[in-house]
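Appendix B. One record, verbatim.
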Amino acid sequence: MDVERTIEFILQQQAKAEVRAALAEAKAERQMAAIRKLIQTGMRMIVKNEELIKATAAEVREVAAAQRATEAELRSLAAAQKTTQIKLQGFIDSLRRGRNGSHRKN
């Protein structure tokens, strides 16, 4: 009868709705699992990046210290070179003047 068909129709619609709800729930679960995985991967990447940043900062500090040491050595070398230049010029001047205070005539 008409009431039976209506009840059958309602039951079919309810069954379809339950199937759709189950599919939607399964899809939502898959999406949540994917989001969890993305978050975990992102957190691992952040930790790794922080470790790399710390390592890079340590290397930069080492390079800066080496650069300061090199600059100090260059200053020392420049001072020694200046002293050598002054002594060499004095030696050249003494050769031009001759020995024992006597002057050479050209």
